[in-house]
Amino acid sequence: MKAEWIDRPAELEQLVSALVSGESGLVALVPEVDGAEGFGTTALAAAACADPRVRRRFPKGVAWLTVDADPPEILRGHLMERIEAVGDELDPLEVVSDPEGMVACSTRPGDGLVVLDGLRHPALVYATAMLAPHSSVLATARTAAGLPEHATIVEVPPLERGWPLLVALADALHTAAPRDVDLADAGARTAAVHRVLAEGLPRLGLPDSVERLVELGVFAGDGTIPAGLVRLLWHETAGLSSVDTELTLAGLSALGLLSLAPDRQVVVLPDAVRAYARGAVGSEVTAALVRALDDGSGTLESAEERSYVLARLPDHYTSAGGDVADLVCDGGWIASKLEVYGVTEVERDLTRAGTPLAERLRHTLAQNTHLLERSQDGTRRLAVLAARLHAVPMIAHEVRALLRGLGCAWLECLWEPPDLAHPALRRTLSSESGAATAVAFGPDGGWVAAGDESGTATIWNADGTVRATLEGHDGQINAVAVAACGSWLATGGDDGTVRLWRPDGTEEAVLRGHDGPVSRVAIAPDGTWLASAGPYEDLRAWRGDGTPLWHARAGLDPGGTLSISSDSTGLVLTGGGGARFWTQDGTPQGTVEAAPEVCTGDPGVPLDSGHRGTVLDVALSPDGTWLASAGEDGTVRIWDRVRHVPPPDEHMRRRRLSAVRVAGQGGWLATAGPGGPALWDDEGSALGTIGEAGGCTAVAISPDESWLAATTGDGELWLAGRDGTVRARVSAPPWSRDDVVISPDGSWLATAGDEVRVWRPDGTPLRDLRTKEMIRSLAVAPDGSWLAASGDEHVQVWHADGWHIRALLRLEDVTTLAASPDGAWLAAATREGDIHLCDPDGAPLTTLVGPLSHLTGLAAGPFGWWLASTSTDGELLVWDVGAEAVLAGLTLDDTLNGCAWTPGGTRVYVAGDAGLYGFKLNQPR
Predict the structure, then answer these.
(1) Residues 503 and 593 occupy one common structural domain
(2) 3-state SS, residue 530
(3) What stretch of H or E contains 438?
(4) Is 493 helix (H, G, I), strand (E, B) or coil?
(5) Which of 550, 630, 824, 830 could tie 617 with a disulfide, CB 3.0–4.6 Å?
(6) 766-811 pLDDT tens trace
(7) Predicted structure pTM score
(8) 147 shares a domain with 49
(9) For residues 263 and 281, what is the distance between their CA atoms, to the nearest angstrom?
């Protein structure tokens, strides 16, 4: 920077005073001309940070971050490093419990100072305040717009000679600066810089440096330019070495044509200079950059370099005349871009490619966005990606190859997962606030709105991006309706209000009057009025601006449907086996008894093959070709109404299964499900079903593998040979269907229910073990010396010799048990997702903190090192018991009900509502 740029004692003193006064935790340094660059704010901020008074004021130090227009995914890691540098710490619970305190944090002085230089996105200030609540923030920006209102603003005026950037460039290039430039006009500022550069650069006497400067115009976007990519480009175009590149950059920086960030390996190019270079650069430079990136992609070192390549290389490929499909359909490219930018940006790449392969890939990603975004761990996300790509095996193979090279444990599908999306599913949208409870389309089908159980409604664009978030309801949203014109929508909720919104998220009105939850909302096609139904036969009509029109008692249960006629003159409410009609002015028009049931589904779409749990609402698109379903699983799914017939399941794995067990010597397994106990080989092919009819809920295999035990839904215990012969069918105690185990020597078995019953292998009762509550899960010691049983509030352990109590543990909401192979520990999983480990005498050992989901199954690995768990929200996790951490995991689109290991511990099988899964645990070599 030129010395005169910081020769501003008045502004410097004002900035220092603002920082040391302690009046505000956020100080912003902005140009007097709103939106202008090149006013020397960076130099002033650096001078202030070097002032001894500022150093004394912030004993924890000053951390500088060059921000510019770089995307958040690049700045996130750097920001955390700067926050750690000033010793700030954040308790995550503080943010969760007090989200509204974020703005207050942004104006609270601290003992450390984080500098955000070149701020373009005000949201970064709020993020810094939230992540560093005990530090102050100094931001240099082009405008104060969007900053917290309590921030201290220091304005920097122009120099006496005019705009500082223009003056500095003119002096460096020995050119007269244009006079009377309207600094408030961005176009006039840019034109003035172009005039100085056009006149001064040719006479500079450094043609090679000028050519290198112009080549920087090839870099897309308005953020910083990674220095490593500049080295690659200039080596390709001019054969420059790394040292030559650094010298050239230093020379251009001395002329004020660019600057080198003091804290990152990036080049900052003024927008006006970049625009000049962009207008002068030739197409051959784009081709050179593509060649350089292709040849040097393996040498990319910084996050900035990798991020730029992932974001911009498809553009450069297209500009250079290359086939972008070759790039974006590569498994490595998809995996890398997914990790940095998420599903939406990968979809955009694939849409641009436009090939059949690209469309299959895009469709697969759109169907599984919710699974990929839930998987925060990079290895797990890649494992999910590989598991969902069975429709494109070549790309799945490439992703698996990447996983093998990562040096981490991961789970690989042994066969096509039974929960893969139906072909009619277009896209899955994820509600992050719980169950999606109501859904409606925009009039052109270009967006969809859905409410959830937390009281938040989200509007998604057709490509899956969020258009707006609607917050205001206190409690679950039960209804969403969109005006035919698309300019507004209405929501009704448990708080008894109807709220009117614009599609950008602006709340227009709150309609009050219902005595309880609003269950249905309908908008007249002409948009002039709407109606809402609540409890106690409460029906209300309103004008489009929210003014009440009339109120009526419906005379029937309003839990059915509410609709307004196509000419906007009549209203019909169905429910309770009938329908009632009203005119627009509220005049009753009669009642029809036993009205036909209103269909809320669509026979052309198998909704039960998509959502985990209940479908709570369905909406048809305006053109009738597709529909949306809102589910208890927190997703909104967009379906094509054209009927698709999925390929037949030749292995018969697609059936609801409640439990799975592996034979002691391996090689085959047994499952419990509606069709009775079923046998499978270790590759997942069906071997047969035992019994004639009826479903079973739990199954166990004898140690010698010659017979099986199974419990049925109606409380029977079946004993059968492996050949399918049923040896005995006996009535068990009430609800003895949740679990069954066989002792390691095969001399007894036990069933769970209102009590625990111990049986002989021939089916005669041996003993009833009295319990404090209904028993849901059983576990037996590997030597048969004890039996454990879990209920809602206790885990009981009995000595098998004499069947007396060995231990009684108070553990609430335990759902399933597992015993280690050596009998050293007993694991108990809970509905909250935690796994408690204790010894057989009840002494606690440790607790594995899970993913806050309802755990349904546990299986101890053969050596006691690993523990597999399943949950209702589709999480399969393999725990390293010694490290008390997750070793590997996979997110599935299914409710999982149980798991079992092979004897060698290399495979784990899972039973789910969608069917049977098999996985190989890949260990790092």
Answers:
(1) yes
(2) strand
(3) strand 436-441
(4) strand
(5) 630
(6) 999 988 788 889 999 999 999 999 988 999 999 999 899 998 889 9
(7) 0.87
(8) yes
(9) 29
